[in-house]
């Protein structure tokens, strides 16, 4: 015989014991995030027999050839890709909702309408001090709501930039961890339990990284070492890492760099925050334009008429935009309602009518309504997009879990099967021992 029963049974018990350990580990980690089910790869041990034909092969047991991770690179890549898309949509939607709240809750539109209504009421009696005071107060309220809206938008931008910087810091932390895992993978024994644990860590870190940026991965076939690129630029290569940076423009929008070179981040939460900041900048610019229009129209009309005291009208508002617009008139008598050259306490309404006509033509209330509608439409559209992307991401996760996750029913079956295999091999060794003892006992 090329091998004896005891050696064959001994190899079987070793294989069954290893399989039992792997199965027990699968059951213990069934609910662990990022854990990939393992299985044992077995191979037959064959030796040539001297007494037989040269090409004859005799089986001599079984050997554990490795521990196999039941991972699917394609499904893992899909989970990262779809998850990054969903994270981008979620971050963008959150930012847009904050923008919507900033411009709606402050009541800028209502304050513009109230100011225009106050000017209309003043037409009924341009010498009425109460009506003049009301217009002044409504103008002051309008200016303050512009100020609050601008401040709120600035706060939204600051919050988004803070979150984006935190995301950049997390990306750099994760890439540093990935580089360390790469170095350990390069030294790990092939198909060892240590290597499979490191591969789990690698995949978990890649999943975390994809929450912030869209990653492209290339894996070394022999070691599992990963190379990660973002926007075509390497972020992790073996044990080396590049640094992701964030630059802020004058309008508050952000751009990303890798080791100082411009990089395109098209997905992940960082991309969503960048898109939301672009909307913040656009909304702030539109709000400034509306405020500037009100300032210009009212102050120009003021200069063309005379106030209640018969003096040439002076500016009612100061500032250049929503952030610094302010009512500077201190008395209702400063409103220039009469045409140039009119006497004090004139009931002439020529200039106030011209002021109203100019304000109606400029239509700041209409512009504000358009701004609000645009932001609200963007929020509604992004919500639909987010729902669709989250559904796609969820489907990809379910598919990966079905393929790489632990099925407790199957593991319970394997537990019984490998336990019986261990007992059977142990019984073979016992029988072999009894046979040889019987032979040796023959007299």
> Can you list the strand order of the major beta sheet?
3-4-5-6
User: Which percent bin holds the helix content?
Assistant: 55-70%
The N- to C-terminal Cα distance equals 24 Å
| Element-level helix/strand string | HEEHHHHEEEEEEEHEEEEHHH
By DSSP (H or I, 4+ residues per run), the number of helices equals 9
- Rg over CA atoms: 38 Å
Tell me the structural class. Answer: alpha+beta
Number of separate strands? 13
What is the residue-averaged pLDDT? 87
Residue stretches low in confidence (pLDDT < 50, at least 5 long) are none
Sheet with the most strands, sense and barrel status: 4 strands, antiparallel
Beta fraction:
5-15%
Morphology: rod-shaped
Keywords: Bacterial flagellum, Cell projection, Cilium, Flagellum, Secreted
Organism: Novosphingobium organovorum
Main location: other
Subcellular location: Bacterial flagellum basal body; Secreted
Considering the chains and any ligands shown, give keywords for the structure:
14% strand; 9 helices; single chain; FlgK; four-stranded antiparallel beta sheet; alpha+beta; 443 residues; rod-shaped; cilium; three-stranded antiparallel beta sheet; Flagellar hook-associated protein 1; 61% helix
Summarize the structure.
It comes from Novosphingobium organovorum. Pfam families: Flg_bb_rod, Flg_bbr_C, FlgK_D1. The chain is an alpha+beta fold and 443 residues long.
Description:
It is a single chain. This protein is an alpha+beta fold and 443 residues long. Helices cover 61% and strands 14% of the residues. It has nine helices and 13 strands. A hairpin with a 7-residue loop joins strand 11 (317-318) and strand 12. Helix 3 runs antiparallel to helix 4 (129-187) and helix 3 packs antiparallel against helix 7. The chain is rod-shaped. The model has no long low-confidence stretch (mean pLDDT 87).
